[in-house]
TrEMBL record, chains A, B:
Organism, as annotated: Brachybacterium alimentarium
Family that this chain belongs to: Belongs to the ROK (NagC/XylR) family.
Protein name as it appears in the record: Transcriptional regulator
Origin superkingdom: Bacteria
UniProt cross-references to Pfam families, sorted A to Z: ROK
Length: 373, 373
């Protein structure tokens, strides 16, 4: 791809985004109205509209004959196709898959989940997910004829096995390249995005059966050299500590995962909060974040922990010229992973890749469907 | 600025970069030759050339009358103006200022340094720097009529005081906005850039009289919320440790700065290397870097330290799916800060800001001048 193509594609995306935003704000509109609303020339607009119609993102709904005063041929009205599923985000957990689907304007138009047995292999899980999406599409009258981006989160522990299988199965189903990553990283992306664009650098720490996380800079996941950034759980906090499943000793996960806190006394919880806060404090000196989000089942089941973690973070970042990061509880709930996948699908779609202006608009999910597989 | 302006400016920069690269590769060239070399239309090329000549970046050197076969009016030959200083990078240390100057093609055309008394205030230091640049310009026959970007690094400890003064004094001298930052962060930017673009994420740790660092992602400094990212020196490694100048206890700086290592026994050095490696190992789990560079006077004066730090980093990153980061000694020497400033000046110049394609080409500095102030 030459520089010119890049610049051309960027211009095109910018224009296209204006057209989609105008259609979302105005509803069905004639070409003349769109040209006025977007300040694009009729010729440019015509190119964009032709392409969007061809891709199934927008439809010709009607003509303006009824509202029309004066003479002349009635003009066609264009509208976002409410039935066009353009972006799909999957979150494959140990025992269930969650799916979020968005239209051309990045609005979530359907969310659903299906449970599966944890012994199901990844090909089976992918098939269950594709079936669920099919069921959701029937229920919400969606079609997958114009899918622009698909991403899927998988559990960190099985990422190396799961990635190629899930990528292949979903690519076969939707005829498009699929982005696959750790679902905790995607959850972090959703949590940071949900807080809005005023935060430049966000850390996400997920304390659950396992411990993981993500680093989000300017609304995008920091990837690192091998897309393994965010592994807060395997920072060593005690070189003489218990053996971790990763092989090292004294990883943060060994002391702060859900199982390790069962029946812990208040003083023990305090000590764990201090260690968690020290790791986040160290990360804060290195990354100068303005937001730290703590998610997962640990803060839900031990609600006092968050304040003590925050205290330890502030101890670790005292006396420095940078401002203190805000420490907050996660708010995206069980749909965090799927929503983060959706954001990644939007970021990575060939049409929008590298386009920092893309904003994820959550809207209100119309309904949630449960299925079992 | 509208989206169109942004896209237009990007196209313009891309074209301009092609013209400058062609002039650098070919030497003096006619418009026809440049059009062929850059595959730009004569009209587009003419606009670019007119602008570059007006800004003093390129000059009309001669005509092709001598080489020319056939008839017709001789064509003007264009060349990079070797006398045009386009980008200036300053590094203000405790006792000296270092300056690097680059031409339009980002090649370093002059480097110099001047010493000053450490009690000089920041206005005086800036004046000494401007004088040095003036002397360098006379010696290298440079003119400052077309300066596109200026950046200056200042010592971390005095950053809040120094930043506004240095920014104002240099802005007055060169008639352009000036980027000011911590000189250790700029040194890290230079060290990471010098290693080439194959590294996606680099950590820089500076162990000297003080301890600092930088995080460089895809060739750019990670800034953080308040531009205070990279403060490895103030990560707490021992909450019961010695009081640090920042007010906290047991910061990495308290044990690993040059002064703390004076007369240390081998076993003590080992312990320090282990702590340094643990902090870098933790940072590696969070950021998944492919490169870690260690600079400053400590590794120079204690040459065995690097291997022991590397060992500890690898212990902290064992058992993970990501690859190990390379741990390397700094190579930019005393010009690291000024070269990093120069890279920042190039990145931040209004013409090039946000343009990831900008590559810093060090070339061979023609000479180094020492002055005392």
């Amino acid at each position: 791809m030459t520089d010119d193509t890049g610049v051309f594609a960027l211009t095109r995306r910018t224009h296209e985004k204006r057209v989609l935003a105008a259609l979302r704000a105005r509803g069905a509109s004639s070409r003349a109205q769109l040209s006025e609303a977007t300040r694009l020339s009729r010729t440019t607009l015509s190119d964009i509209v032709t392409d969007l119609v061809a891709r199934g993102a927008i439809v010709v709904t009607d003509t303006d004959a009824e509202q029309r005063r004066g003479s002349g041929r009635p003009a066609a009205l264009l509208a976002l196709d409410p039935g066009s599923a353009q972006f799909l985000g999957f979150d494959f957990g140990h025992r269930r898959v969650v799916i979020a689907i968005a239209d051309a304007s990045h609005k979530v138009v359907a969310q659903g989940e299906a449970e599966y047995d944890e012994h199901r292999d990844w090909r089976e899980r992918a098939a269950i997910a594709v079936d669920l999406a099919q069921t959701m599409s029937a229920e919400h009258r969606l079609h997958f004829g114009a899918v622009q981006g698909v991403a899927a989160g998988v559990t960190g522990r099985s990422r190396k096995t799961a990635e190629p299988i899930v990528a292949r199965e979903l690519a076969n189903a939707y005829g498009i390249d699929v982005v696959v990553d750790n679902n905790v990283r995607f959850a972090g992306l959703a949590e940071a995005s949900e807080r809005g664009s005023r935060f430049s650098t966000a850390l996400y720490l997920h304390l659950s059966d396992g411990v993981g996380g993500a680093v989000v800079v300017d609304g995008r996941l920091h990837q690192g050299a091998d897309r393994f950034a965010g592994e807060f759980g395997h920072v060593v906090v005690d070189p003489d500590g218990a053996r971790c499943r990763c092989g090292k000793r004294g990883c943060l996960e060994t002391i702060s995962r859900l199982g390790a806190l069962e029946g812990a006394l208040p003083a023990e919880l305090d000590a764990v909060a201090r260690e968690v806060g020290r790791v986040l404090g160290a990360a804060s000196m290195i990354l100068n974040p303005d937001l730290i989000v703590i998610g997962g089942r640990v803060p839900t089941e031990h609600p006092g922990l968050l304040a003590r973690i925050e205290e330890a973070v502030h101890e670790g970042t005292a006396g420095t010229a940078g401002s203190r990061p805000e420490v907050r509880a996660a708010i995206c709930g069980p749909f965090a992973g799927a929503r983060g996948s959706l954001i990644a699908a939007i970021h990575e779609s060939p049409l929008l890749a590298g386009y920092a202006g893309t904003v994820f608009e959550t809207g209100q999910p119309p309904s949630t469907r449960k299925a079992t597989g």
